[in-house]
Amino acid sequence: MTFVVRVIIYNDMPPQRLSPSPALLSPMKHPPSIDPAAKIAPTAIVDEYHPSLGTRVPPTVIQAGASVGHHSIVYASADIHANASVGDRCTLHTHSTVRASAVLGEGCVVGEGAVVGEDARLEANCHVGPDCGVGTGASLGPGVVLWEPPG
Question: What is the 3-state secondary structure (H, E, C) of the chain?
Fold first, then answer.
């Protein structure tokens, strides 16, 4: 079975107005590292670079056995560890991490710098805010929002 990954580069528009830039025709600056054993839905978007991140951004990494569902977006520099499952219509923001064997239900959002621990389970529409964490083996019911207000 062959999976197609659409890799796009965003221009300077805000995220709600994403559009491919002409840079698609140029070599990738930060190509994602996707293990051949990972399963990426053909409608998922794996981001390779965003100008606001500068030039020293590690690539997005999707390890063996991981899966990314339909219409999900994985922004630059996100990590999805081995055997993790990201459901349909999920969003993983920059520098977020989904650790081994974690499961994200449909419509989950993992904020910038947030971590979903190993074997954690997030049911549909959970939102893990920026720099928040879900512990190893934790389970969140549908629609749970974790948010840590600034300072």
Answer: CCCCCECCEECCCCHHHCCECHHHHCCCCCCCEECCCCEECCCCEECCECHHHCCCCCCCEECCCCEECCCCEECCCCEECCCCEECCCCEECCCCEECCCCEECCCCEECCCCEECCCCEECCCCEECCCCEECCCCEECCCCEECCCCC
